[in-house]
Backbone:
């Protein structure tokens, strides 16, 4: 029996409710893992918002009114402007997958048709995973780029001088408009911590890492009166490429005199400050061998309400009367509410 476009749409809808059973060998990627989608963009790590953009508030200083005083002193009360607002635009991305009704006729039996639908959907979602990996770990968007979301290199910038020196590079969108619309010249505290290193050793990298972790651990001066802070609790995580990860595993072995017969006894175990160090295959192409220290209490991945991997019902493709397509869309962006609570260590300063 010949399947109509409407029958294919019904079959696709039915199949999407049960995505088990189909088995394939995945040869789609050169990367061992996609950390952006598998770890960073999990639903329990994202937040949702609405409005024309993602806005957030800053208190840039105190009011300067505290002073030592004496008996019968005259008050001199002033109100200073200590607040400003940042903003991040929504960014949109999409993937899709499609079927021709004649392909369905070529498949023998319902099981083969279901497998075809699952594989097409998987291919579309793999394409999404690759896009998000590039968006998150790739270069900082350049001036004039209106479509690329703000990834890690937009917010956390390398520098060859140790300190709060993370100033966006010339030619980048963040340099032209300021990270989140805020100039680090006007607001010098609006910079991430950065530092150079040359060797993966305790005397060099680990020492710089310790200092970076200490310098970025800001604590509010008054705890009880800071309920409006964006920070949801310090959740530090560390991300490196294999040029860093492999030697760290070897460094662990030198600390233990009783390793037994396992010649790779510390593989997969590097931690810093009792937090796991995550190997990111995408960063293997970064010749600066960066070490990113991110505070997920401050970093937020924000999606427009109702637009988090929104998968629309199947529909007939325009100008292709035998084709059914399914669209998957996202609208969102990343926000780092406090850049100076994150850091990057690196051998160089290439940010693209």
Residues:
């Amino acid at each position: 029996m010949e399947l109509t476009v409407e029958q294919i749409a019904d079959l696709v809808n039915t199949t999407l409710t049960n995505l088990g059973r189909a088995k394939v060998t995945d040869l789609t990627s050169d990367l061992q893992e996609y950390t952006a989608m598998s770890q960073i963009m999990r639903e329990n790590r994202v937040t949702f918002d609405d409005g024309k953009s993602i806005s957030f508030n800053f208190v840039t200083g105190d009011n300067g009114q505290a002073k030592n005083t004496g008996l019968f002193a005259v008050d001199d009360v002033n109100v200073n402007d200590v607040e400003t607002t940042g903003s991040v635009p929504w960014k949109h991305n999409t993937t899709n997958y499609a079927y021709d009704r004649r392909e369905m006729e070529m498949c023998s039996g319902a099981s083969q048709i279901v497998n075809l639908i699952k594989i097409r959907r998987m291919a579309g979602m793999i394409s999404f995973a690759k896009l998000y990996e590039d968006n998150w770990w790739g270069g900082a968007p350049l001036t004039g780029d209106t479509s690329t979301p703000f990834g890690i290199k937009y917010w956390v910038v390398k520098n060859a001088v140790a300190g709060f020196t993370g100033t966006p590079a010339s030619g980048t969108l963040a340099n032209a408009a300021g990270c989140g619309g805020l100039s680090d010249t006007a607001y010098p505290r609006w910079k991430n911590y950065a530092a150079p290193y040359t060797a993966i050793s305790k005397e060099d990298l680990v020492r710089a890492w310790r200092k970076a972790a200490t310098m970025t651990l800001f604590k509010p001066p008054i705890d009880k009166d800071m309920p409006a802070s964006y920070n949801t609790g310090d959740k530090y995580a560390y991300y490196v490429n294999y040029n860093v990860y492999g030697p760290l595993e070897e460094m662990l072995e030198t600390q233990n005199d009783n390793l037994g017969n396992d010649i790779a006894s510390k593989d997969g175990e590097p931690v810093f400050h009792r937090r796991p160090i995550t190997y990111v295959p995408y960063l293997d192409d970064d010749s600066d061998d960066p070490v990113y220290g991110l505070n997920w209490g401050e970093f937020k991945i924000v999606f427009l309400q109702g637009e988090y991997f929104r998968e629309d019902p199947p529909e007939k493709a325009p100008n292709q009367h035998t084709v059914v397509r399914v669209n998957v869309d996202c609208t969102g962006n990343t926000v780092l509410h406090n850049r100076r609570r994150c850091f990057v260590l690196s051998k160089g300063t290439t940010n693209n």
Summary: The domain at 5-23+30-56+85-346 is CATH 3.90.1690 (phage-related protein like fold).
